[in-house]
Amino acid sequence: MSNRGRVAVGCVLGLLAMARLRAADDSGRDRLVAALLGPTPLADDLEALSDRVGGRPTGSDANRRAVDWAMARLADAGVAARRERFAVGDQWLERSARAEVRGDGLVFAPRVAAMPFSISTPAGGTSAPLVDAGRGASADFTRLGATARGAFLLVEQDLLADVDGLFREYNETAAIEQRARAAGAAGVAYVSSRASGLLYRHNVAVGAANRAPMVVVEREAAMRAMRLLRHGTSLTLTVWIDADQSTSASAENVVAEIPGTSHPDEIVLMGAHLDSWDLGGGTLDNGANAALLIDVARQIVRLGLKPARTIRLVLWNGEELGMRGSFGYVQAHAAELDRHVVAGAVDIGCGRVTGFFTNGRPDLVPIVDRLLAPQAGLGPFAQVDAPVVGTDNFDFLLEGVPNLIANQAPALYGPSYHAANDQLEQCDTGTLRLNAAVIGGLVWGFAQDGTRLPRHTHADVQALMDRTDLADQMKTFGLWDGWAAGTRGRKP
Ligand SMILES: [Zn+2]
Hints:
alpha/beta
């Protein structure tokens, strides 16, 4: 007898009801998992999204084409789907960015990427002395003293190897930008953390509150400038940035829905963001998982499966600007949040799903363990109960809704993160197919399972902040102020 059976023994009626539900759901789940492992249009969809639509930052024509494409693919599959418009607020799109380094008879023009929420420069560019700011540590600013004021700070960074390095980079840059602002610097020029001229976009930590030009400079040219500075050559950096910084933009999420039969008011949500940055094709981040959710929806409908609870598979928009689409969703669906059983996010590329982050809900761990057990052959799986900030579970976490993020093997996610090489060839679509089966099986499990955890109160969420590094992560990503001001997250 399984543990599940023993738990139910106290109530014969409950046991019979559960047995009926389980008999039905087991075959549904098995058929869904088998279908997702078989030949489906998943890889073709990912190719279309990566190559035909391409990079699709929020506010771009490609982003609108991506929404149209997703709606069309869901319609082709017979899946009911709708567009839900939300306020993006502060949008940021690079139109052009270039730079020039001059000094002592030298002139060269390194390729640069403006950092999202960098300001535009005047048409004639912004020129300032370029200074060696080392790694941007406190000691570097002490050494620079008054010379940091009015200067462009050239900041060296380690070569990025993996996802851990990425989080370190985000943490460090948030602190560096604070010091740069306090020192009155004209702007920051980061040595690219990727080799061979590869550029990428990292949001300026303070987001739209930023008032300085910020760029990532191709590594080899930036290191040339750094060596020149260290050997005593005075250099001037001129940066030209033209960015669309609309303040009242809107965009659309795509919400696919398979209505529940016995508990249609209870919602099981799984989401993946459809927007991406523009330097690459947005395959790993996050076209792969958007295509994955379309395939899950497609197979549920194709097999004629009828979940007990309503399944919502959401393709978020505006994620890269600070999870604006999922923030818009929790506002628009505030009255339903008590009835959201779980809200999950898949957003770490194409590496194998190794389990789920349960984001400070230890009570969620045994449920996920149990619902993944039938897919154990696709594992092993281990859940990590630590809050993670940086994708579309965030506003559900702040709203107290049980939430998950798929944890994935790093694969090539870190080195191609937000970069020009985030392209189709980086994704192993065989692994993506296995992940579709894992996610599909879990979503189906939640839709059939009788368990429902209570929603956390404001005080519960605050207590989570007090005992973990959640608040620090929020500050790193410029997401603290909304919670502190009471404009984001569950009200007390
Ligand atoms: Zn992403």
